[in-house]
Amino acid sequence: MTRYPRDLRGYGRTPPDPQWPGKARVAISMVLNFEEGGENNILHGDAASEAFLSDIAGAAQWPGQRHWNMESIYEYGARAGFWRLHRLFTRLNVPLTIYGVATALARAPEQVAAMKEAGWEIASHGLKWVEHKDMAEEEERRQIAEAIRLHTEVVGERPRGWYTGRCSANTVRLTAEEGGFDWISDTYDDDLPYWLEVGARDQLVIPYTLEANDMRFATAPGYIEGEQFFQYLKDSFDTLYAEGMDGAPKMFSVGLHNRLIGRPGKVAGLKRFLDYALSHEGVWFATRGEIAAHWAATHPHTRRERPSQMSRDRFVEVFGGIYEHSPWIAERAFELELGPAHDSHEGMASALVRIFRSASEAERLGVLTAHPDLAGKLAQAKRLTAESTSEQASAGLDALTDEERATFEALNAAYTEKFGFPFIIAVKDNTKASILHAFRRRLDQGRETEFREACKQVERIAWHRLNAMDL
Fold first, then answer.
1. What whole-number distance in Å separates Cα of residue 117 and Cα of residue 256?
2. Which of 67, 125, 294, 371 is catalytic?
3. Closest of 71, 351, 289, 273 to residue 163, by C-alpha
4. pTM of this prediction?
5. pLDDT at position 210, please?
């Protein structure tokens, strides 16, 4: 069965402690995109000129023509912007990850030499800085392989990290399937790295950013001065730093481009931010490769059985007993649009309870009548399900005095005679005394009100049973 692929849950309410080196409160990943010389250009065999991320307002592609102004702006990035940034980062000794377009790197031997001398990580930014959304899967796979080959030839070693940027729906899967990347970054969906299972491959994903990114100088709404860029980075840093002080350290990615932040009026904002972050203790500036190595060592991936990936038979086997003697609830829940968000206690509770709530009154009544009496004859005969046995024992209902047992039997009889179904309560939320109090209170209610309350108690019992499972 096809499942919903998007993961809208992530780490949920309890993200892991990254345990950054030196007990850092925030890890900062500074990324410089090197795209100049790899952009759309008929000189590069493309059908039109570039139109993306420049200082030309309202730029559009020119089919079959060179766009001299656009080319010149990209050239500024390689000729001047890169060196301004190189001087800034090497002077401050801040590590940098390069997202290098392979064809751009091949056209920039001096800049590549400077990157290597500085000890920067050089990751792959694809073969060319072009749009991939309409690219056939086989062609994209071929270009990934060619990008790796050319990168290795130019840099001297294969890239261990990948970010396409202008990606397709296949990019993350294809780069994971390639099998040689320590990390990939074509997502923007978290403040922490996470593992992605792609076939037999456990791929580490380090999410990137399009908002703490100088590309906003070339988009609307965006930044128009370096101070605005600084202020946004500062606000982001301050928030993440405070979260780190509260015991929830995160990662902060900052995206840069030679032709944008490399301009004098813009780089001033970047410099202010770097000086500001460096003035704080407990800040780890790291390459993405360093972050990946730390995460793999500290939080290695362990595969587990996931409800959204189970077969029908296995799904019913595991969840068929959550609602007392009512496996049909699990059978119908299997048909829902399940996905990664359901691979948790809350997710499975939601899937199962939706079926129970949407069932007919007669079907819900069947679930109610499937429940045993509290401390009744089935319990005495040890014929309860394992779940019911454990639940009743948790409140001491398996060790009643003769007087207590007689009281329960009388209440059970009166309740069942009035409502037509046994008294149901989430025993794990109660004590023997509170159960007896609820018994007497609910005996005074009308049937419609009591039917609703009994159904809510069934839902609560199911929640407890799911919560006891290792999901």
1. 20
2. 371
3. 289
4. 0.90
5. 93
